[in-house]
Amino acid sequence: MNARRIIPMGAVLALTAGALAGCSGGGQAPTVNEDGSTVVDMWVFAEVHAAFYEAMAEAWNEENPDSAIDIQITVYPYEEMHNKLQLALNAGEGLPDVVDIEVNKFANFVRGENPPLVDLTEVAEPYVDDIVQARLDLYSKDGSIYAFPTHVGAFVAFYNTELLEGAGIDYTTIQTWDDFSAAGQQYNEATGKAFGIAETGVTFVEPLITAQLGGEWMDADGNPQVDSPEAVETISMLQEMQEAGAISTIPGGSPDDEQAYGAINSGDFAAVVYPAWYTSRFVDYMPDLAGKIAIAPAPVPDGAAVKTIGGGGTGTAVIGSSPVAEFAADWLAFAKLSPEANVAVWEELGFDPVNMSVWEDEAVTHNPDNKFNQYFQTNLFDVLNQVKDGIGHWESFSSPNWPSVDNLFRTVTLNEAFENKVPAQQVLEQAQTDLENELG
């Protein structure tokens, strides 16, 4: 793979040497090239991540010529990579040294008392005061961090101001979900078009609203409670919005789908509530909307418990049996948590960085030459700084049973709720029964 240059990097922050004493496994010797660089094998499921890690390896080598890394990255399709990783862990061979694990799959790899991943808590220490704690919690178990996040993924709202102004709507007046619903009804009545989106193929807005209501979809023991009062209120609220014309289902079932990009780009939808990393989708796939989209805080219910949560994500882990576990963990802390890396996360990927020190650096966040700043009417970091004290951690995402819940909702439950219009209480009671039967 070809390395891609990114912005010039500053000095590497000091890392804790030898923090993972005893982690290296199997007695296998590290592979060291003739130039002294250490080979680290990495698996990812996204090409854009591969390019980012190669850039981070190059940045590391510029600052650490005596402990250089030779990152060897293999990109697999999403399902294939996670299945291959599980099989390799079961067999105890054929494993990478470092691996990206998507958040909805992560719980599968930290089951039991001794997860097969390296405890990264100590190497994270130089950075933790600046990292959004909720995102570290997402990849933690029993007080230990087993992977590093790529972004916050804080939910925000994206509004097509050209369309809204044509319908007499000022997006800055939308503060609550009641406001959002009222604006959606007004827009639909004025234009005959859809305002917001009812998801059927992704489980994002539903967890956001449940968290804002102070609820969870899992109990304290990690068992599903998807028919909890807050969950029922969430689906009921969204169904009422759909009935009133404020939200509609979208081609592809999710805003993050090729069919959906085309629909949004052509003006078929005026509002998207989604994680902040969706900025990249606008820039990459909806060029006709440049200069027309404003970013604002996500709506909240009255008396919200939290303002927003993180949605989606990738946790990057080190395999415990790797012969280069200590070295790989030190590099990974730099590549995922350092200010230098998080500047690149924004400038190269358009993601909201987990290191909040970057949020305060206006030379980065308000750079007029930045393609994301040029595209949007409002600045993402102005919005993030408005809500940063209200970013919550939704425990359900960290449950070992979350992958089963997410799969059921994406394939059955949300379609029943928004395509077949099954009442919220009924559809969630059925989901609860299905999950209990599946999980035993």
Can you walk through the features of this model?
The protein has helices at residues 47-63, 78-91, 103-106, 121-124, 133-138, 161-166, 177-191, 205-212, 229-244, 258-265, 279-285, 325-337, 339-349, 362-365, 371-375, 380-387, 402-418, 424-439, and strands at residues 38-44, 69-75, 98-102, 140-141, 144-145, 155-160, 196-198, 247-249, 271-275, 293-297, 308-309, 314-318, 391-392. 41% of the residues lie in helices and 12% in strands. It has a four-stranded mixed β-sheet, sandwiched between helices. The chain is globular. The N and C termini lie far apart (44 Å). The protein has 440 residues and is an alpha/beta fold.
The average pLDDT score comes to 92
Taking all Cα atoms into account, the compactness measure Rg is 22 Å
Low-confidence spans: 1-26
The largest sheet, given as strand count, sense and whether it forms a barrel, is:
4 strands, mixed
Indicate the overall shape: globular
| Count of extended strands | 13
Estimate what percentage of residues fall within beta strands: 5-15%
Give the helix tally. 18
Specify the structural class: alpha/beta
Estimated helix fraction: 40-55%
Largest sheet, order of strands side by side? 2-1-3-12
Distance from N terminus to C terminus (CA atoms, Å) equals: 44 Å
